[in-house]
Specification:
The chain contains no helices and 54 strands. The strands form 14 sheets. A five-stranded mixed beta sheet has the order 40-41-2-42-43, with no helix packed on it. A hairpin with a 5-residue loop joins strand 30 and strand 31.
Length: 683
């Protein structure tokens, strides 16, 4: 089953939920949740689909629109063909292999002999991760923002360095160094350097103290001296410790513990120190000068004089290879909303001549990306895609999506069978209905958090909407929601963050309430449902059949179903344990990892973006069994479209949509939207 590329859902911050059926619209009887596209042609192979004209059969594949090379892409390919994504750090192994981390704590290796890149560790999605360096040929250390992790690059085994809760808390993660014995040197409390044994966690102060700042103590024990905000450290092969301070001074601590000031001549902020085996010290400084390019200087062994070297490129990070060559990571930007997309590129630079050659990163990676946080079919074979700051529409026959503006800052969109859009807008605490051009048709719920008790009016402003019991509401006649409060507590609901439309035209709005109460508004009449002691972390809402709604319980790794008629809340997928397993068996006993977006097809089958596992899974409405329909668990990224849906890598899928022609649309955090044409036995 192949997959086609078209072009980060941000998890919804809600402690638990209020779900409101806030309007009933007069829709045709034969509709499905989200929308029902028009089928063109007698054969299933002739169904229409968003994008350029084509006739697809089950298993067919075509490129419709968007980035040909995602920002993060390519595994076991030449590094120059790969999309590097958001690289947060680099480290060079003794073998000369270059290691990158990012996005998050994903670790990739570029083989120095072959020039090919491969993912060696997927990580746990820790966004603050940054590599430190190697203590030996196989042990790489990286920080997570709060901890330091040891990674064996051969076996991918990890372990956390002990010692937290003591005097190594609140370390500066950008100024960590490691010696050949596996000891870590951390900048603590803006005034001290502590040495931490990475095995035992035992730490000792080697320079400065935890209470006083200054630059005193030269010629004496470093532990009795004062330091001024250490920003960078480096360990030489002979054990000499170099410390770069915020005032531009570089302090030197010899193996016997004596401290001195090597230089005070640096103008600007010291970003990185690199000690070479021959005793030379590289100094990377940020400063204002011609071109705005951070300079790199060298202090030759036995001297204190700064000598500029011809390595001058706008850089986000630098690393030095065993042969003395520099790896320079360029500045990058993958967010179209923040300006032109600039892919991450790594160059290999000769510090003697300044000659630079591209080493890794595809210059076209990420160009044209579209980060869609929500998807909705348009009712006429096209697709709506919600991004920030714009929304896009891809109609049949169009080679590229067209952007348009929606009111406010919507968090999620849904459509009815007529193709009208519904948006949940936390910025205005409202849910509105708009037409295909983004023009406001009706305000379904308004100023939710600004009204008495937290409940806003439900009206047909700017157009017709349905009132209580299906009665029409005029544009100037708001129908107030009854004065109600969450079951078991006070306060009100606010910030609608999700919206869904069912087959009858009922509109459900997902909002925050208390940690254990779900409230449901059915045509203005409130029902409240207690979840007991179980707290929700909802990231999506989808309308199911027979008056039910599905809720993705992201942090608890489960999907819940709420029967709006009886108030019964049941778990339909997931055990609560993060993992991947259970394909082919009952979904209730399958493991998932941070499920996000959902969609329901016309037969009631549920599709789930299993974000942490990089796959999309389907729960059969008849049997309750779960299977993977797209993606490969354990493989994040992009490997083309020729291997079929089950052989194509996804990167954190977080939004899905399904149309009536058997097309499954998937948006992932790599900036792609892809479409899978499902075989008939998987619809």
């Amino acid at each position: 089953m192949p997959i086609r590329t078209l072009l980060h859902r941000t998890p919804i911050s809600a402690f638990t939920i209020a779900i409101a059926v806030i309007a009933t619209l007069p829709l045709p009887a034969r509709t499905i949740a989200q929308s029902a596209p028009i089928v063109v042609g007698a054969e299933r192979g002739a169904t229409c689909v968003a994008g350029a004209p084509q006739s697809l059969r089950p298993g067919g594949i075509a490129m419709l629109a968007g980035a040909a090379i995602p920002a993060f892409s390519g595994d076991r390919v030449p590094a120059l063909q790969a999309g590097l994504g958001a690289v947060s750090g680099m480290a060079v192994a003794p073998s000369g292999d270059l290691y990158l981390n990012g996005p998050g704590d994903i670790v990739r290796r570029i083989d120095a002999r072959t020039g090919r890149i491969a993912t060696i560790y997927k990580g746990l999605g820790l966004l603050m991760a940054q590599v430190i360096g190697f203590s030996d040929a196989t042990t790489l250390f990286y920080t997570t923002g709060t901890d330091i992790v040891r990674l064996n690059v051969t076996t991918a085994a990890t372990g956390t360095v002990p010692g937290k809760g003591g005097q190594i808390d609140n370390f500066n993660r950008t100024s960590v160094s490691i010696d050949s014995h596996g000891a870590l040197y951390l900048s603590i409390a803006q005034s001290a350097i502590r040495r931490v044994d990475s095995t035992s966690g035992i730490s000792t102060t080697v320079a400065g103290n935890l209470y006083d700042q200054g630059s005193s103590g030269d010629g004496g024990p470093a532990a009795a001296a004062t330091l001024t905000w250490p920003l960078a450290t480096a360990i030489a092969a002979d054990g000499t410790l170099y410390i770069g301070q915020i005032d531009g001074a570089i302090r030197k601590v010899t193996p016997d513990g004596t401290i001195s000031t090597l230089t005070k001549a640096i103008s600007g902020q010291i970003v990185r120190l690199v000690a070479r085996p021959n005793g030379d010290l590289y100094v990377w400084v940020t400063s204002q000068h011609a071109g705005g390019v951070p300079p790199i200087d060298i202090i030759h062994a036995g001297t204190s004089t700064l000598t500029p070297i011809p390595v001058r490129a706008p850089a986000r990070d630098v690393a030095v290879a065993p042969d003395g060559m520099f790896y320079v990571l360029s500045e990058y930007n993958y967010d179209p909303g923040m300006g032109p997309v600039q892919p991450a590129i790594i160059s290999r630079v000769d510090p003697r001549t300044g000659r630079s050659v591209p080493y890794a990163g595809n210059a076209r990676a990420g160009v044209g990306v579209l980060y869609a946080s929500s998807l909705a079919p348009d009712g006429a074979c096209g697709l709506y895609m919600l991004t920030y700051p714009a929304a896009y529409h891809l109609a049949p026959g169009m080679a590229r999506p067209v952007s348009f503006t929606l009111p406010g800052q919507p968090a999620q969109i849904a459509t009815d069978a007529r193709g009208d859009l519904y948006e949940a807008d936390p910025s205005t605490n409202s849910v509105v209905r708009v037409d295909r051009r983004g023009h406001l048709l009706a305000t379904i719920i308004r100023n939710l958090s600004n009204s008495p008790d937290g409940y806003g009016p439900y009206s047909g402003a700017h157009g017709a909407a349905a009132g209580p019991m299906g009665a029409a509401v005029r544009a100037d006649t708001p129908a107030a929601i009854p004065d109600i409060r969450p079951h078991g507590g006070g306060g009100g609901y606010s910030s609608p963050s999700g919206v869904a439309v069912d087959a009858r035209g009922d509109v459900f709005a997902l909002t925050s309430a208390s940690a254990t109460v779900t409230a449901l508004f059915i045509n203005g009449v409130r029902k409240s449902f207690s979840t007991g002691n179980h707290s929700f972390d909802p990231t999506d809402i989808a309308a199911g059949p027979a008056g039910s709604v599905y809720l993705s319980d992201n942090s608890n790794n489960m999907i819940r179903r709420l029967d709006t008629r009886t108030g019964t809340l049941t778990t339909v997928a997931g055990t609560g344990v993060a993992g991947f397993g259970g394909d082919g068996g009952l979904a209730r006993w399958a493991e998932m990892n941070a499920p996000a977006g959902m969609a329901v097809d016309g037969m009631g089958n549920l599709f789930i973006a299993d974000q942490g596992n990089d796959v999309v899974r389907r729960v059969d409405a008849r049997t309750g069994r779960i299977v993977t329909v797209a993606g490969v668990s354990g493989h994040s990224g992009f490997n083309g479209v020729s291997r079929g849906a089950r052989g194509s890598y996804l990167q954190g899928p977080d939004a899905v949509a399904i149309d009536n022609s058997g097309h499954l649309y998937v948006a992932d955090s790599g900036g792609t939207v892809r479409v899978v044409y499902l075989p008939s036995n998987e619809e």
